[in-house]
Specification:
The complex is a heterotrimer of chains A (about 425), B (about 350) and C (about 375).
Chain A (H helix, E strand, L loop, with lengths): L20 H43 L9 H10 L6 H16 L3 H11 L4 H10 L7 H8 L6 H10 L6 H6 L2 E3 L5 E3 L7 H32 L2 H12 L6 H12 L4 H8 L15 H24 L4 H9 L4 H12 L1 H17 L2 H6 L7 H11 L3 H25 L9
Antiparallel strand pairs in A: 1-2
Helix pairs in contact in A: 1-19, 2-3, 3-5, 4-5, 9-10, 9-13, 9-16, 11-13, 13-16, 14-15, 16-19, 18-19
Chain B lengths: L1 H12 L8 E6 L2 H19 L2 E6 L4 H9 L7 E5 H9 L20 H4 L9 E14 L11 H4 L9 E4 L5 H8 L7 H5 L2 H15 L2 E4 L4 H8 L4 E5 H10 L4 E16 L7 H11 L2 H7 L6 E2 L32 E3 L2 H20 L1
Parallel strand pairs in B: 1-2, 1-3, 5-6, 5-7, 8-10
Antiparallel strand pairs in B: 3-8, 4-7, 4-8, 4-9
Helix pairs in contact in B: 2-13, 4-14, 7-9
Chain C lengths: L10 E8 L8 E8 L4 E5 L6 H9 L6 E6 L2 E2 L10 E4 L11 H10 L5 H14 L15 H13 L5 E5 L7 H18 L2 E6 L2 H7 L2 E6 L2 E6 L1 H6 L4 H6 L4 E11 L2 E6 L4 E6 L8 E6 L17 E11 L3 E8 L2 E9 L12 E5 L6 E3 L2
Parallel strand pairs in C: 3-8, 3-9, 6-7, 7-8, 13-19
Antiparallel strand pairs in C: 1-2, 1-4, 4-5, 9-10, 11-12, 11-14, 12-13, 14-19, 15-16, 15-18, 16-17
Helix pairs in contact in C: 2-3, 2-4, 3-4
Classes of the chains: A mainly alpha (about 425), B alpha/beta (about 350), C alpha+beta (about 375).
Chain lengths: ~425, ~350, ~375
């Protein structure tokens, strides 16, 4: 057996074989580290591919749009050289050349769509000009203005200059109800097209209301779950979880059957003579419908974290408080409630974040005034195909949620969050 | 980065698969999908031996952009609305269609003359004409129902909830026609701010009594549930509910807004050549006439008109239910795709904002 | 049973019964009177009903039938917070989100006491358990023993006349537990409060109590001061449960006054004190404490019958020697002798004769 004495070479601890201790330790634990890493790799790759990359891609879209800049190369060069100067003959020549190219590679629609985002009604300017671009002769300024005098519009050139660089904050401006004005600067959009700021506010207000309702309804259930004997508690737990096992659409449409003006609840109220047949309650296709259906759908997300926290609170605390002379209300307020804060925080933040991003339910039961910002994002994803604006709206939503998360961390502390 | 995006998007779309010598048609499902299966897919397979598959989507135009951008086009033919086809074509998301492949009419009319005006575009060929019109529940109006578009906006005369599509398109046109603007002047009026204000002012009259729908299947459901007494709808859906299911719905054709539905091939489709062959086949005179046997949408070819017969039940005459019937076209408006391509964003923002206030 | 002279019926259980399911009784006809200033321990194995009794007294469980009276007042319908009873819980139940000071202040706050008075009382209570330095700590920052003291101080801070303790020392290690036993006992004596203490540790019960109520199967088996309980158990259960105990089975051969002779199943005849056997021929279980058994002939008490024993095992325990014997067919007969100068260390295999004073052998009903 080798001597256990530590050789005093250069003050480095060495193993009995003379290998520095640090190296030996690294070698010894490397296998374990590699193994641990390999176990994580599948999930890491999965998350990267299905979560991080698409979100990153989507967010990068909110800052960039090259539909114009990639296709209008000559004009881009002119803007680089001349900045904000008024368009001269050279500018129109570049425009004509680009329109010719875009007619050949069928990109005029894309170019027009990009400018149309900023200046509604200008898309056909590009598509029709591209169709006739082949016949354009110098002097280009006269030729192009002959096609349509709108080409002289200052705001059109401002929009083109702004679009000639792929990177842009225009979509965030649009997401804040602002648009390019005639002078090329951003200004508030006309009152009757402003929508996003209002929708953001409504989304947050409604999410707060829904979260509050979830808390109000979920707290007693979670408490009951925590104190019932296991046999009854598991039955109740199944009832709580049942909605999870039912399709979201089924649940939402069930609410429609219940809440509509000719629905079960109204029929019952009429039958009981609580409301008259003509005075049936409007509980669907408005905010009420959205709040009721979403509260129901999000309730388990409040109950489960609350339950997991309440489960850990021994009944002896309440008993101790009672024995010390506190009424049941004081016991609840001073002793029980403060100990459930971490559950309330977790459930609240979970419900709120989910509510902020919900869109199927508001789309189905929300009607005109029950829709949320997510419906507008879906609209731009699916119908208007303005993905960049959708990404900008989603990005703002993401930032708002992150701010909330940060505030939560500052006020309650994220370490206190118990999700189950 | 681009490759990663392709891969990740592919992960979410690889549920569909397509192999050689196969045509995958993405369409709207329901009664409409069934009419296409019977009229195009089955005979095409029988004649050519090429396998055909039908895939459903809420709106087949929606996934096209995602598929083309991810370079993973899993369908060969899409059935989309005319305005979408124009827009997708302009954005380079559809293959160009050579009009020469389209067959002449059965009566010998050259193809380009046989199709209704504008039915063939750079990227697509129309199959049917569908209409957005309105229908009412006859049981709600025992003393005679509404007859004109103006009646739809008259809550005093015809009380009850209204169903309207949640979007600017068709609603603004209908509002103007109800206000007395002749069909021919509707789009010129909408080009002006005053015209748009006028349309919204008309919509204001029924705003408080409106239930908004988004999917085509909703209006017949809203009518059947008694949630609304009248609703705008796609005419084929009302036909299906009224004729096939015997619901007491009556269609009003005054002020209808009609549009083509077209077939197109997404850019980069795996079986592009067969797909084109399929489009040429499916838009033939007899195919379009056959389709009208199953659903009340008008054929996009003149030569198909005379061949349209009875509904599949063998007794219902289809002509009165067709948007293209002369009787139904007395006060009708052809949807202007170019107007909507230009103004869709702006008017929908205005519309959404109007909804909020 | 001897009635305690100071027993003025401060706490009274009067024919109290308790059932949770309507089918079985957890507490069967409990009658108990606790005097003011008394330290009474409810001792028993788990499930014997002792904790249920304590919970009924605290107001967390309601008696199914019968009356519980506190200071002459029936309290069956009085909610727990109006009973004014201090309570110390098994796991202390210190509120984790409050500091030590806030914990102690809580019962005073809910009584609407002013800030100055609260501070005075909190300081006094904390000084009492020498924990004033910890007033701003949270319970999680304290050791088990410290938490225990705080819990004690909290139960006493509002000057209750009755304090209930539910196995308060169960979670402490042996040394700390013994230390705390004395401290609690000391507080009890200096404050003159009435304490009802629940435990399953008989050593604790014997050490601290004025009287011990031994619970089993929903009944009080014996209610007596510790010494009486130990030396004169009323029945086989109490004899078994309190302290170490040797049992010999037999039949009463003769009985006269407080002398009886018992014929063991193996034939030997021994002398015993009849406790609850009355007539000849009755089956009995004779219980003898290990430390009361003598094996040195010169030390044998008078009137002792001697019987044969074989040494099976000898264990050196420091202050004691513990010897396991085979006696009358039993392999588990244990005797204990003090490690005094000149004490004999028995060797396994050795044959000896053992005996005891008839007063120490108690003939009980089996």
């Amino acid at each position: 057996m080798a001597s256990p004495d530590i050789p005093n070479q250069n003050d480095v601890l060495r193993t009995v074989d003379g290998i520095p201790l640090k190296t030996a330790l690294a070698t010894a634990s490397r296998r374990a580290r590699i193994r641990a890493f390999l176990l994580v790799v599948p999930l890491l790759v999965f998350i990267l591919l299905t979560f991080a990359v698409p979100i990153g891609q989507m967010l990068s879209r909110s800052f960039t749009d090259d539909k114009f800049s990639a296709n209008m190369v000559e004009l881009g060069k002119w803007f680089d050289a001349n900045g904000k100067a008024a368009p001269d003959e050279a500018a129109y020549a570049a425009l004509a050349a680009d329109l010719k190219t875009s007619a050949e590679d069928r990109s005029a629609g894309n170019v027009g769509t990009r400018i149309n985002y900023e200046l509604p009604g200008t898309r056909s300017l590009f598509t029709s000009a591209a169709r006739k671009a082949r016949n354009l002769e110098p002097p280009f300024k006269e030729a192009i203005l002959a096609l349509d005098p709108q080409w002289a519009r200052a705001d059109l050139w401002a929009a083109m200059r702004s679009a000639s660089a792929p990177a842009t904050l225009n979509f965030y401006q649009a997401a804040l109800d602002r648009q390019i004005g005639a002078d090329g600067e951003f200004e508030a959009a006309p009152e009757n097209t402003q929508i996003y700021v209002k929708l953001f506010i409504r989304t947050f207000v409604m999410s707060i209301v829904i979260t509050g309702l979830c808390l109000l309804l979920g707290f007693p259930i979670a408490h009951l779950l925590a104190i019932l004997p296991l046999r009854h508690a598991s039955l109740l737990m199944i009832l709580v979880l049942l909605p999870f096992w039912t399709s979201l659409l089924v649940r939402t449409t069930s609410w429609m059957v219940l809440l509509q003006t000719q629905g079960v609840i109204n029929d019952l109220l009429v039958w009981l003579h609580i409301v008259s047949d003509g005075g049936r309650l409007e509980m669907m296709y408005n905010q009420t419908g959205t709040i009721i259906a979403m509260t129901h759908i999000l309730l388990p997300f409040m109950i489960l974290p609350l339950y997991s926290v309440m489960k850990t609170i021994p009944p002896s605390y309440a008993r101790a408080a009672r024995s010390l002379g506190a009424t049941s209300w004081t016991t609840f307020r001073r002793i029980y409630l403060p100990q459930t804060i971490s559950g309330i925080g977790a459930g609240g933040i979970l419900c709120f974040i989910l509510a902020v991003g919900y869109y199927i339910t508001p789309a189905l039961v929300g009607g005109a005034d029950g829709t949320l910002i997510s419906n507008q994002i879906a609209f731009h994803m699916q119908k208007s195909l303005n993905w960049s604006l959708a990404a900008a709206l989603a990005g703002m939503l993401l930032v708002a949620v992150l701010i909330l998360y940060w505030a939560y961390d500052r006020i309650i502390g994220i370490d206190n969050m118990k999700l189950g | 980065m681009k490759k990663l995006l392709i891969l990740s998007t592919a992960l979410s779309t690889f549920a569909f698969g397509a192999s050689a010598q196969e045509v995958v048609l993405m369409s709207w499902g329901g009664a409409y999908g069934k009419s296409q299966t019977e009229a195009y897919l089955k005979p095409f397979t029988a004649e050519t031996g090429i396998k055909t598959t039908m895939v459903d989507a809420d709106n087949p135009a929606t996934p096209v952009k995602a598929m083309v951008e991810a370079n993973n086009v899993t369908v060969d033919v899409v059935d989309i609305e005319y305005a979408d086809a124009i827009r997708l074509c302009d954005e380079g998301l559809l293959e160009t269609l050579d009009p020469a492949i389209l067959p002449d009419g059965a009566d010998g009319t050259p193809a380009m003359d046989d199709f209704l005006p504008g039915a063939v575009t750079d990227c697509s060929a129309a199959t049917i004409v569908f209409s957005t019109m309105y229908a009412y529940d006859t049981t709600k109006f025992p003393n005679g129902g509404p007859k004109t578009m103006a009646d739809f906006f008259d809550i005093q005369k015809f009380p009850g909830k209204r169903g309207l599509r949640k979007g600017a398109k068709a609603n603004l046109e209908m509002a103007l026609m109800a206000d007395g603007v002749p069909a021919a002047d509707v789009y010129a009026t909408l080009e002006t701010d005053a015209g748009v204000d006028k349309a919204f002012a008309m919509l204001d009259k029924i705003k408080a009594d409106t239930v908004w729908w988004e999917a085509g299947a909703q209006p017949p459901q809203l009518l059947a549930d008694g949630e609304v007494s009248m609703s705008t709808a796609y005419n084929g859906r009302i036909f299906a509910a009224a004729v096939a299911e015997g619901k007491p719905f009556e269609s009003v054709w005054d002020g209808q807004v009609y549009e083509y539905d077209v077939l197109a091939v997404p850019k980069g489709a795996k079986n592009k050549d067969v797909a084109m062959q399929f489009i040429a086949y499916a838009t033939g005179t007899q195919r379009l006439a056959d389709q009208a046997k199953y659903i009340a949408y008008g054929p996009a070819r003149k030569s198909s008109g005379p061949l349209v017969g009875l509904y599949e039940d063998g007794k219902t005459e289809m002509a009165p239910y067709m948007p293209t019937s002369a009787a139904n076209l007395t006060n009708a408006l052809a949807s202007d795709f170019e107007f909507w391509a230009d103004h869709d964003t702006q008017l929908n923002e205005r519309f959404n904002s109007w909804l909020l206030n | 049973m001897v009635k305690q002279p100071q027993n003025d019926g401060f706490v009274v259980f009067d024919h109290v019964q308790k059932s949770y399911d309507g089918e079985t009784l957890v507490v069967k006809d409990l009658n108990l009177s606790i005097g003011k200033g008394e330290f009474l321990t409810m001792l028993g194995p788990s499930g014997s009903g002792k904790t249920t009794c304590l919970m009924m007294l605290a107001g967390f469980e309601t008696a199914t039938s019968g009356d519980i009276r506190l200071d002459g007042r029936p309290i069956n319908t009085v909610p727990p917070h109006k009973r004014g009873i201090g309570m110390v819980f098994q796991n202390y139940a210190l509120f984790p989100h409050m500091t030590v000071g806030e914990n102690l202040s809580f019962p005073l706050e809910v009584r609407g006491m002013g800030k100055d008075e609260r501070e005075t009382k909190v300081k006094r209570a904390l000084d009492m358990v020498q924990m004033y330095d910890f007033i701003n700590r949270r319970p999680a920052q304290l050791s088990g023993g410290q938490q225990q003291r705080i819990a004690l101080a909290r139960a006493l801070v509002f000057d209750p006349s009755l304090v209930l303790m539910d196995e308060p020392l169960g979670a402490l290690d042996k040394q700390l537990r013994e230390h705390m036993q004395f401290e609690i006992k000391h507080l009890h004596e200096s404050l003159g409060i009435t304490v009802v203490y629940v435990t399953h540790d008989q050593g604790e019960a014997l050490t601290m109590s004025d009287r011990v109520a031994v619970f089993n199967d929903g009944r009080i088996q014996q209610l007596a001061p510790p010494n009486e309980l130990y030396e004169r158990p009323d029945n086989a259960f109490v004899a078994q449960f309190i302290g170490e105990n040797n049992k010999l089975e037999g039949v009463v051969e003769s009985i006269s006054g407080n002398q009886a002779e018992v014929r063991l199943t193996t034939g030997e005849l021994i002398a015993a004190t009849p406790v609850n056997v009355t007539k000849k021929g009755e089956k009995t279980l004779v219980s003898i404490r290990p430390e009361r058994v003598e094996f040195k002939p010169e030390m044998m008490p008078s009137g002792a019958h001697m019987i044969e024993a074989e040494v099976l095992e000898f264990i050196y325990m420091g202050d004691l020697f513990r010897t396991r014997l085979r006696v009358a067919g039993h392999d588990d007969f244990v005797i204990k002798s003090r490690n005094t100068q000149g004490q004999t260390m028995l060797r396994p295999g050795e044959k000896i004769k053992i005996g005891w004073s008839p007063a120490d052998a108690r003939a009980l009903q089996p």
